[in-house]
Amino acid sequence: MASVYSLNVSAIIALAFALCLQGAFGSHIACENLNKDSCSYAVSSTGKRCVLEKHVRRSGEQAYTCGTSDIEADKLKDWIETDQCIEACGLDRHALGISSDSLLESRFTQKLCSPPCYCNCPNIVDLYFNLAAGEGVYLPKLCESQGANARREMAEIKSSGFVAPGPESGGVKPVSLSTAPAPSPF
What we know:
Blueprint lengths: L1 H23 L23 E9 L5 E11 L10 H6 L17 H8 L1 H4 L3 H13 L4 H6 L3 H12 L27
Antiparallel strand pairs: 1-2
């Protein structure tokens, strides 16, 4: 128990120190100014997440650019994720986009839920917490059920027809999944 407490205290101190250093140097991150090696998992000075995009030129050459997504980070601004967090969480900085499918992979979930990632990389945990919530999954519960049960739990939650409660919600509410037949093309 003491080691978890010390990890949490260390994470808070590291985050505060990083924020102070960034503030002291007056950094203002614009996603469009970031290169391929620092774009993914970065947060702009406006709080928007950065996204790595691939473009194919007429010559067939591939070019990578960094753009600003519409997704906001929770309480983070001016943040470029460290290589230590990328490695600890089992991520690839050069991957294009993220998917909730990665939460079904036990190796990825184990790395994401490991203390080096979960306790020290708040930006990544926030991103995957929100991604999991969008799929009706509560990340801390998924981390508790690591291993063989994690895949089953994710599959059960995804197929249950229920959505995760919001922060002010009184509980889980069923989703109506009624469909209408497609109109005839004639």
